[in-house]
Design a protein that fits this description.
Strand order of the largest sheet: 1-2
CATH architecture: Orthogonal Bundle
Radius of gyration: 22 Å
Structural class: mainly alpha
Oligomer: single chain
Distance between the termini: 70 Å
Number of strands: 2
Number of domains: 1
CATH topology: Lysozyme
Low-confidence stretches: 1-16
Order of helices and strands: HHHHHEEHHHH
Length: 228
């Protein structure tokens, strides 16, 4: 026991007003967080069809198109990443570890949001490209983050932006892990990367049939300039 604690007055009660205020602040923060999650878009019903996804959430097409034009990762690959990482759930986090199988403990990582970006790399993204207002729970910033990350993988590791399997391995393992080949001893990660590549190819084929309707849905988007 430290001397500071040992010599502290034992009968000094904490003011009731301070306790009440702290409780209200904590409750308010929790309510605000849950409210934001409740206001977020529901996950698409049919996640195997990118046309149906964008029909439910047409702004997602705009965000992914902006990211594609800015960073080079195809729309289909971006959305395959999001589906794999979060199943299009905006506020999802890794489940907490359990203490003695009962009590909730810490989470295994700081991953959050559509792209499941962790705190350190999200900080890098915000400092480099996203800005302080970027949120992992908003699809606009999630797609931009994926584009930024893959652009970095392309520059640092030489991975083609047309190779979603390799891009996902680097996304999952990080640049250092990818260089070391850490994924080679992780069959589940290799399988996930293959599945992302297959979904990206499927999305790309589907998008070729429906992209014009998303490019040309606004009154100021004039044919033929908005055609896919």
């Amino acid at each position: 026991m430290s001397s500071a604690v040992k010599n502290a007055p034992e009968n000094r009660a904490r003011p009731h007003g301070s306790t009440r205020l702290a409780t209200l602040l904590i409750a308010g923060a929790a309510t605000l967080g849950s409210g934001c999650a409740m206001l977020a878009p529901s996950p698409p019903q049919n996640q195997t069809n990118i046309c149906e996804i964008f029909r439910e959430q047409p702004r997602w097409y705009d965000y992914a198109l902006d990211s594609q034009e800015k960073w080079g990762t195809p729309i289909a690959t971006q959305m395959a990443f999001v589906q794999r990482e979060s199943s299009f759930r905006s506020h999802v986090r890794p489940p907490r570890n359990r203490i003695l199988g009962i009590f909730p403990g810490s989470r295994p990582s700081s991953s959050l949001g559509y792209a499941q970006a962790q705190d350190p790399v999200w900080g890098e993204y915000r400092a480099d490209a996203g800005g302080m207002g970027a949120r992992r729970t908003h699809m606009k910033h999630a797609t931009d983050f994926i584009g930024w990350y893959n652009h970095r993988s392309h520059n640092q590791l030489g991975i083609a932006l047309s190779n979603p399997e390799r891009l996902y391995l680097a996304y999952h393992e990080g640049p250092t892990g990818y260089r070391r080949g850490s994924y080679r001893n992780k069959p589940q990660v290799q399988r996930a990367a293959r599945e992302v590549a297959a979904l990206s190819a499927s999305y790309q084929s589907q998008l070729a049939q429906c992209e014009a309707e998303f490019r040309c849905r606004r009154f100021y988007q004039i044919w033929p300039f908005c055609r896919a």
